Amino acid sequence: MKSVLFAAGISAVLEDRTMKSVLFAAGIIGLIIGGHALPTAYADDGKQQLTIFTPRLSGDHFVCSAVNVSQRPLTIGFKLLDVDGHLLVPLAGSDANPTPNSIVQPGTEAEIDLRFNSGIPPTDGYCEVIVAGARERKDVRVDLQVYWTKPIIPGTTTPIIQLARTVQGY
Question: Where are the domains of the chain?
């Protein structure tokens, strides 16, 4: 009699463990399927969009560029912003800020080129680059090159470039 009860107990324990294993496996499968159904950050055309910022620099001539190092065309737009996040207003003859989005083919580059009044203090700013169509940040390389032209030395007509710096955006 004891052996029959013992065998029935083992059978019940095994059935309980099997049921828990089946439920656990079903839960894992549900998470996997559900995880693929979650939306990600994609633009209207179904392509992923990302924003890359450069560090801030000071100067009177800003050139922010992005190189498409992926294998497919990317849509890229630029903004140059002041330290408070507002658009910088360049001198006449500079590019528009922000630039209209442009399609950049693989292996090519797009840029925004803005000039400001030279003098002291120089203009402070950073670049914001919006990229659509990139699958990863490594699909594009961004840098900001800034020049600061020192005012003309008395008695000459040639301005002197005091500073030229380049930083990369991530």
Answer: 1-38, 49-169
**Cα distance from N-terminal residue to C-terminal residue, the chain:** 74
| Max Cα–Cα distance, the chain, nearest Å | 117
* SS3 category, 25: helix
| pLDDT of res. 168 | 84
**Exposure pattern of 72-83 as b/e (b: 16+ CB <10 Å)?**
eebbbbbbbbee
In angstroms, rounded to a whole number, what is the distance separating the alpha carbons of residues 126 and 87? 10
Report the CATH fold assignment for 49-169. Answer: Hypothetical Protein Tm1070; Chain: A (2.60.290)
Which of 10-14, 94-98, 128-132, 156-160 is least confident? Answer: 10-14
Q: Which two tokens stand for residue 89?
A: 């207003």
Instruction: Return the pLDDT at 117.
Output: 83
- Asked whether 127 and 78 are in contact (CB, 8 A), the reply is yes
Share of the chain above pLDDT 90, in %: 48
Q: Rounded to whole angstroms, how far apart are CA atoms 123 and 147?
A: 10
Name the strand (E) or helix (H) holding 168.
strand 160-169
> Which three-class secondary structure state does DSSP give residue 148?
strand
